[in-house]
Amino acid sequence: MQSPVPSPQVSELDKAAPGQGPQDAKPPRQRRSREDVIARIRDAAAALFAEKGYDGATTREIAKRAAVSETLLFRHFGGKAALFDHVICVPFEAAIREFAQRREALGDDVVLNSGEPSIYASVYELFEGNTALLGALMTAPLRRNGEAGSLPSASRLSFFREATAQQMSLYRQSGEEPPFDVGIATRLSFGMMAASVLFHDWLFPDFEPGRGEILATLRKLLTRGLMPSATQSQSPD
Q1: What is the rounded CA–CA span in Å between residue 184 and residue 182?
Q2: Cα–Cα distance for residue pair 88/192, rounded to 1 Å
């Protein structure tokens, strides 16, 4: 009696649908490095915070745009508040710190010259170059319902204190008493320059002033509003 012929062994590749040979198999997914994952999360978070603000952006959306799991986002950054600090607050604080260092390098003779337009231009450029960061900061609540993370302010406060001290020095040199709280006035002036960039389209819906015209107007407003009268008389119109 003839022995039964054994059935041929069929491999998993042979079981594939027609046209799906070994060359058609999907390559194994490469494992991303830690640096790549962090960079992806940071880029996605910065974009979404700029687009939707702090409250509008969710960790789920950020993880989806970064093509990572939400678990990885929490593992590397702890939560939305800490992530916001990392990608928005810290870079903006660094920009302010860099500006303050450049301003200090100009020397007292330039800082104390109220008619020097480069000081006003450099503040304006600080905001122009960081519009997305500034816009995202405007949407962030200072207290975040108990979430971890805080809004860093060391560089910003240092800048305000230095600018206030310089204004007070001008008043002492002139022998005048400031007619207002110089610290408050300095911060409001800083905010006015930020608003001139951030709300530009909202402020000028009917005409487009030139950049030079905006800077000249800001300089006159700040000079006449902040400076002692003796210093104002030395400032060009």
Answers
A1: 5
A2: 21
What would you report as the CA-atom Rg of the chain, rounded to the nearest whole angstrom? 29
Residues 6+ apart with CB under 8 A from 65: 44, 47, 48
Helix intervals (H) in the chain: 34-56, 59-66, 70-77, 80-84, 90-106, 108-111, 117-128, 131-138, 154-174, 182-198, 200-203, 211-226, 229-232
- Residue 59 sits in a domain of what CATH number? 1.10.10.60
Same domain, yes or no: 109 and 72: no
Domain residues for the domain of 209 are 88-140+152-232
Contact of 185 with 127, CB cutoff 8 Å: no
pTM of the model: 0.59
Residue 70, both tokens: 């939400």
Reported as a single tens digit per residue, the pLDDT across 96-141 is: 777 667 666 655 444 444 444 456 677 788 788 778 777 777 766 6
Query: Tokens 């194994």 belong to which residue?
Result: 28
Q: Is residue 174 part of a domain?
A: yes
